[in-house]
Write a structure and sequence with these properties.
Oligomer: single chain
Distance between the termini: 28 Å
Strand order of the largest sheet: 1-2-3-4-7-8-6-5
Strand content: 25-35%
Shape: globular
Protein name: Class F sortase
Structural class: mainly beta
Order of helices and strands: EEEEEEHEE
CATH architecture of one domain: Beta Barrel
Pfam family, one: Sortase
Largest sheet: 8 strands, mixed, barrel
CATH superfamily of one domain: Sortase
CATH class of one domain: Mainly Beta
Number of helices: 1
Keywords: Hydrolase, Signal
CATH topology of one domain: Sortase, Chain: A
Radius of gyration: 16 Å
């Protein structure tokens, strides 16, 4: 279950030279700089590509993320909350890794594990999730956990949505199976390089071992 704290969810300013902010899980309210407006209702996430029999894994933090279809093989850092109550994001630097929001389940536990990454990293160029929007239903995602287990997920759907309409409940809301959410920026980049108009969200579900 996502903690009831004042978070938003928008991975704002993915290419900005300053530290970007990311919104997060549903809460009673959110206000102040960077706060998101109420999220629009989102359609249920389809799971047609995923067998229903995947058993949940023991809690173990993610240490590496592999997405063969788009050439991703990156360490995974842990992310908490920034001082303003938004979700922290990986640093704006060369080879910045993906980051797991530690307020979410670990990948393979029941519920939505949330991993964030940059599409671009300012002066350093491309981010680890540059091609996240190219993913399609059925694509595989492998998360290596600290206990040595590799959790393999299949993509259910990919969504590009305006940051002001971020589907908070679909991303952070409770689900009855082990799920994964990958988030980055998308859409049009601001002329001054300060950010992007949209977010790209990948929804995936755990596959049975073997």
């Amino acid at each position: 279950m996502v903690p009831a704290v004042a978070l938003l969810i928008a991975l704002a300013g993915c290419a900005a030279p300053a530290t970007p902010s990311v919104s997060a899980p549903p809460s009673a309210s959110a206000s102040g700089p960077g706060s998101a407006t109420a999220a629009a209702p989102a359609a249920p996430t389809p799971r047609a590509t995923v067998p229903p029999a995947a058993s949940a894994l023991a809690r173990s933090v993610p240490v590496r993320l592999k997405i063969p279809g788009i050439g991703v093989d990156t360490p995974v850092m842990q992310l908490g909350l920034a001082a303003d109550g938004t979700v922290a994001v990986p640093p704006i630097e060369a080879h910045a890794p993906a980051g797991w929001y530690r307020g979410s389940p670990t990948p393979g536990q029941v519920g939505p594990a949330v991993i964030l990454g940059h599409v671009t990293v300012g002066q350093f160029g491309d981010g680890v999730f540059l091609h996240l929007d190219r993913m399609r239903a059925g694509d595989r995602i492998v998360v290596v956990l600290e206990d040595g287990v590799s959790a393999t997920f299949a993509v259910d759907s990919v969504q590009t949505v305006a940051k002001s309409q971020f589907p908070t409940s679909s991303v952070y809301g409770n689900v009855d199976h082990p799920a994964l959410r990958l988030i980055t920026c998308g859409g049009v980049r601001a002329a001054d390089g300060s950010g992007y108009t949209d977010n790209v969200v990948v929804y995936a579900s755990l596959l049975p071992a073997g």
